[in-house]
Amino acid sequence: MKKGAFCELILRDAIKNGLLTTDDSKRISIRQVAAAADQIYADVIYLMIKDNESIDYFTKSYVAPIKKDTTTREYYVELDPEIVQLPNNAGVHVVKGAGSNRKFYPVTYGTLDLMDDMSVSNYYDRNVYVMDGQKKLIIKKFDYASQNITEVIMKLVVRFSEYGMDEEISLPSGKITEVSDMLAKKLFQNKKFLDTSSDGNSN
Question: Per the structure, how many domains does the chain have?
Fold first, then answer.
């Protein structure tokens, strides 16, 4: 379902649950709903993801170039979209080379140190990355030239604000109504949107 239609569904669910009347909803724009739903959407996604396999249903795909820091001589990938914060940085679900089957696996700096201390890295043929804050992946154990990988394809669990109004949101089809209902109850239980000066139900 497209984001704009999903926000309209949230308004209808609010009416169905007795949180709004039809007249109330006319005072609220779809864009107001979208903006207010952003944080609550992230919380709902956090609650709905049960395991690593289920994350895939909530991801959005991105392609990004692999860059090199000339000072540190490290390869990295910038994370432009805002990612939903999940335990163990699981919001970055898949990273693999574009046009390649080679995946990049998440590790910690502690794991890297252990690998180096035990000389595991000499035999370790996996590409790995370390999260540097929330906006960058530092790529380790990576031979850029021989592997000929210049871009990565990523599957990310992103915030509601990262979707355009005409863009399909990443939710399992069987969960659309459940999520919209949860958002309606969270957003409108205090009727915080009842502002007669709003621009009506416009896009």
Answer: 2
Q: CB neighbours of 201 closer than 8 A, spacing ≥ 6?
A: 11, 25, 26, 27, 28, 29, 30
d(CA 66, CA 9): 39
111 residue type, one letter? T
From the list 61, 123, 143, the residue with the least C-alpha distance to 98 is 61
CA distances from 126 to 6, 10, 68, 103 (A): 40, 44, 19, 8
Q: Which domain holds residue 99?
A: 60-156
Residues 15 and 101 in one domain: no
Strand partners, 46: none
Q: Taking the model in full, what pTM does it have?
A: 0.84
Token pair recorded at residue 102: 């080679």
Per residue in 49-69, pLDDT tens?
A: 888 888 999 999 999 999 988
Please check whether residues 66 and 144 belong to one and the same domain: yes
Query: In sequence order, what are the residues at sequence separation of 6 or more whose Cβ sits closer than 8 angstroms to the Cβ of residue 2?
Result: 165, 166, 167, 168, 169
Write out 2-31 in H/E/C secondary structure: EHHHHHHHHHHHHHHCCCCCHHHHHCCCHH
